[in-house]
Amino acid sequence: MKDKQFDTRAVHFQSKEPARNTSKAKPIYQTSAFVFKDLDDMESFYEGEKEYLYSRYSNPNTDDLGKGIALLENAEDGVATSSGMAAILAGILVVAKQGDHILASEDLYGGTYQLFADEVTSLGIEVEFVSFEDLANVKGAIKSNTVLLYTESVTNPLLRVEDVEGIIQLGKEYRVKVMIDNTFATPYLLQPYVLGADLVIHSATKYIGGHSDVTAGVLVGHESLIAKARSKIITMGCNLSPFEAWLACRGLKTLSVRMDKQCRNAQALAHALEEDPNIHRVYYPGFVSGKGNGAMVSVDLADHVDVEVFFKSLDWIKIAPTLAGVETTVSYPLRTSHRTIPEELQKELGIGKQLVRISVGIEDEMDIVETFKKAIRLS
Ligand SMILES: *Cc1c(COP(=O)(O)O)cnc(C)c1O
């Protein structure tokens, strides 16, 4: 490069990649495209011999995340997306087309509810929301053009543990595909694909990332469905960026360590709050897995507790409209995640003005319990 002009040197100053990569951490392939020696070399991508051409198609870091979650869910393949919502959309589009009918649980993450109610419906796909609490209800709603049963393994914000096996059985009986949002349970606690689900999605923004610094999603399932999903993700452009994927992969390495502690803390908090006379009701899953029951706790504060004061009295615990980070946070579903769902449905689902959702972190159990008890006392 020494013999080149300034501008050329400024662009081409970097040394060649080491022939053998010996960095301990996986490098971030922060690149939009990959280079080729000659035209034959480029042709080899289209013949399936080379993996990488253009990062919207695939990239080593985004592949790591998709395939990493597939490995933990014991699924054949997985693909990473720009968000949990994008993973849900890609999954739906693989299974459903105009004229089809989808049965979705009425008890869903607010964004998912909106995706179904506004966008999926506008594609000419009929979406019917039914209670999945009683499977006879789901069974009765299956029609000849039903192609998908959609629900969450642990629901948000009331933390009902779905009868995933029962739903999968129903799907098999009627030859209807089953897609599960496994975000709250994580692949550590529950693996719906092993139980027979066709597609499983995760908002990797939550426990998989774990540090509230990345927005990402993952869709896993059988090779044939994931191949279709990958092609849609490429065309729609809802692929994940290499750096975001790298962050989510770093989070994934400590998933089980974080979950073990977060589940223990949540269990302790749920027990402590159950005994508090200022709490009307505690929502905490009875059983998710032998490894733990998740790290979310929701509570209905007693009617005499002032919610506004409660949120101001939480000291070091912050209000955040998300969950699953290493820090304990609280959210108010009525005005955030469930703001957009119809008022009648909010009432029916039990999402009222005294409902508080707690995402329990990895801090010391005693500090978490004491801080909540004090905030409730002060309110
Ligand atoms: C957050 C969340 C989503 C959406 O994920 P994003 O990464 O925000 O797009 C979907 N389902 C559940 C259960 C969630 O908690």
UniProtKB/TrEMBL annotation:
- Write the signal peptide boundaries: none
**Pfam families, alphabetically?**
Cys_Met_Meta_PP
Xref: CDD domains: CGS_like
GO molecular function list: homocysteine desulfhydrase activity; methionine gamma-lyase activity; pyridoxal phosphate binding
Q: Which UniProt keywords apply?
A: Lyase, Pyridoxal phosphate
Q: Which residues carry this modification: N6-(pyridoxal phosphate)lysine?
A: 206
According to UniProt, the reaction catalysed is: L-methionine + H2O = methanethiol + 2-oxobutanoate + NH4(+); L-homocysteine + H2O = 2-oxobutanoate + hydrogen sulfide + NH4(+) + H(+)
Which Gene Ontology CC terms are recorded? cytoplasm
EC numbers listed for it are 4.4.1.2
Which InterPro entries does the UniProt entry name for this protein? Cys/Met-Metab_PyrdxlP-dep_enz, Cys_met_metab_PP, PyrdxlP-dep_Trfase, PyrdxlP-dep_Trfase_major, PyrdxlP-dep_Trfase_small
BP GO terms, sorted:
transsulfuration
Basic and acidic residues bias: where?
1-19
Please list the cofactors this protein needs.
Answer: pyridoxal 5'-phosphate
Q: Where is this region: Disordered?
A: 1-24
Family of this protein: Belongs to the trans-sulfuration enzymes family.
Q: What is the designated name of this protein?
A: homocysteine desulfhydrase
The record lists the organism as: Halalkalibacter hemicellulosilyticusJCM 9152
